[in-house]
Amino acid sequence: MRIISHVDELSRTLEAARRDGRSIGFVPTMGFLHAGHRALMAQAKRACDLVVVSIFVNPLQFGVNEDLAGYPRDFESDIAACTAEGVEIVFHPSVEEMYPTPMRTVVTVTGLTDRLCGASRPTHFAGVATVVAKLFGMVGPCDAFFGKKDYQQVAVVKRLVRDLSLPVNVVECPTVREDDGLAMSSRNTYLDVPARQNALALSRSLFALVDSIGAGERNRLQIESDLVQSLGSSQGVTIDYAEVLTGDDLTITESIEVGREYVAAVAARVGAARLIDNVSFTLDPSGKLLADLGALRDGLPFVRS
Ligand code: AMP
Asked: pLDDT of 142-179, one tens digit each?
């Protein structure tokens, strides 16, 4: 495995690989890699000839009072994870390499960023879209793998690629959960033992929502208020948002209709962490509920015990 820290070396190397007829799978990350990231690498490895992982804590996507300085890092263990997944290139640039001069170009994806994390972190998605556009420019034509754990982020990236005609195929991968349902996140390291227990309220409230839709509830307002009620009454949890939106354009809907994807997304402060989670679901033409609750670390669908 090769560790590359310079943009021109990365671009040249990947250009040469493409000339040799090899397909590129790209997994952008901020490091402190866990089984969720590793699932993206494994999926990239199955689909592509060469996998490149970027590890870059992007200052642009952190608000002024957020956790940029304290964001967890462990490069050695990240390298071990990438090696174990058969990654060929790790791109690990410095902030100066990524942003050699102050940025005068900012990529904003409108509409999709009005709600959820876009509302509570107003500068976040411009930071994400800008760094992702830069990384896509550096990597070149590729399949790029993103986790549904960050549902709104995938929607933003897919739209960015479409609107700017970028030569990238965005592949969505399921949310990887711990056995008890907690969505894996680098920020779970901020949780002490009681907070780790309290954090289960996020996934549990989302699973309860899926159950209520499975039992026939179709009124979005009712579903959303039940979600707010169950998450908000959980010990040690302060809700940031809990919403049910259409999956394609992330807008509000009156009722849950057949044939459309919806997403129930939550963000909450638990102990020292701000955590997010979501489930997406569709009613098939016969009215049967198809819900994506995510996967376990071995890739099998997550099933509640
Ligand atoms: P991050 O390092 O948090 O910026 O995440 C890098 C990529 O890993 C993003 O595409 C995330 O959506 C994805 N990711 C993070 N956590 C998970 C998870 N639990 N399951 C699946 N993908 C994840």
From this structure: 999 999 999 999 999 999 999 999 999 999 999 999 99
Domain that holds residue 143: 2-173
Ligand 1 pocket check: which of 66, 143, 149 to mutate, most ligand atoms within 8 Å of Cβ? 149
Q: What is the pLDDT of residue 95?
A: 98
Note whether 268 and 122 are same-domain residues.
no
Are 85 and 33 in contact by the 8 Å Cβ rule? The answer is no
Tokens 């952008």, located at residue: 28
**111-130 burial, b if ≥16 CB within 10 A, otherwise e?**
ebbebbbbeebebbbbbbbb
DSSP reduced 3-state for 297? coil
Same domain, 143 and 287: no
Length of the chain: 305
Query: Is 178 a domain residue?
Result: no
Q: Quote the pTM value.
A: 0.98
Same domain for 261 and 158: no
The residue among 173, 208, 224 that closes a domain is: 173
In this prediction, residue 125 has a pLDDT band, given cuts at 50, 70 and 90, of very high
CA 211 to centroid of ligand 1, rounded, Å: 26
Q: Catalytic residue positions?
A: 37
Q: Which residue among 130, 148, 173 closes a domain?
A: 173
The pair of structure tokens assigned to 40 is: 């993206």
Report d(CA 111, CA 88) in Å as an integer: 37
List pLDDT tens digits, range 71-111.
999 999 999 999 999 999 999 999 999 999 999 999 999 99
